[in-house]
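Try this one yourself first.
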């Protein structure tokens, strides 16, 4: 659990012809993490970018690289994302047959491990792994695309994860991913979120540094 919430801009919404520049603008505004969305066209109905994209983003910044794998068979790609600069890799509970093994595999490279969960998946499915993970990525949209609308029932799920953490004395961070805007970022933090992913609300802004500052002020003030 972090003292103050972390903003993690998702570069999925960035202008890839100016990726380095836009990442620098986001960090200039105060973004602490950079969120990378990896999509395989099978687990989710869209293809984004792979380890090469993470490597390029990593070269543009010294910030923490938070890599969200929306792919089947993630274990086969763990090493390539570690080499590309991932500081944390998250796998979807819905995409792996042996979640404990996948989490241990990530940790064996000396980086942090997270589990991601879709809006319609029962939180009970990740209950047995909560002791092992550094991060829970709570999807607040159905994964696959940026720019979707926040699903309001996600707030109760954030709260449930925060309650479980307190009750069991655990220390995983709770990340909210999808549809986070100036209007709802504060309610996510109030419900117990530690890391707020924001794609279009950061990169669709005309002035990226000031939008990042605004989001951070909104969630901390
Ligand atoms: C959705 C991705 C999100 C997404 C967030 O599949 O995991 O990280 O890019 O983008 P916005 O903030 O536009 O919903
Ligand atoms: Zn994501």
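Now uncover the answer:
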């Amino acid at each position: 659990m972090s003292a103050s919430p972390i903003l993690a801009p998702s570069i999925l919404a960035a202008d890839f012809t100016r990726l380095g520049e836009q990442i620098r603008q986001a960090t200039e505004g105060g973004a602490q993490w950079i969120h990378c969305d990896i999509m395989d066209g099978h687990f989710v109905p869209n293809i984004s970018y792979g380890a090469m994209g993470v490597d390029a983003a990593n070269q543009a910044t010294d910030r923490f690289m938070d890599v969200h794998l929306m792919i089947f068979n993630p274990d086969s790609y763990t090493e390539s994302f570690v080499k590309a600069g991932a500081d944390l890799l998250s796998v979807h509970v819905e995409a792996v047959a042996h979640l404990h093994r996948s989490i241990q595999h990530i940790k064996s490279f000396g980086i942090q491990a997270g589990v991601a969960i879709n809006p319609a998946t029962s939180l009970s499915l990740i209950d047995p792994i909560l002791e092992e993970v550094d991060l829970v990525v709570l999807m607040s949209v159905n994964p696959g695309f940026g720019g979707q609308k926040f699903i309001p029932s996600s707030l109760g799920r954030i709260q449930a994860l925060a309650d479980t953490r307190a009750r069991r004395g655990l220390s995983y961070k709770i990340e909210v991913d999808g549809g986070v805007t100036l209007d709802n970022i504060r309610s996510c933090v109030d419900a117990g979120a530690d890391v707020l992913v924001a794609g279009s609300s950061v990169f669709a802004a005309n002035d990226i540094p000031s939008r990042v500052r605004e989001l951070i002020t909104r969630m901390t003030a």
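Discussion: Strands lie at 6-9, 33-39, 64-70, 88-92, 112-117, 135-139, 173-177, 195-198. The radius of gyration is 16 Å.
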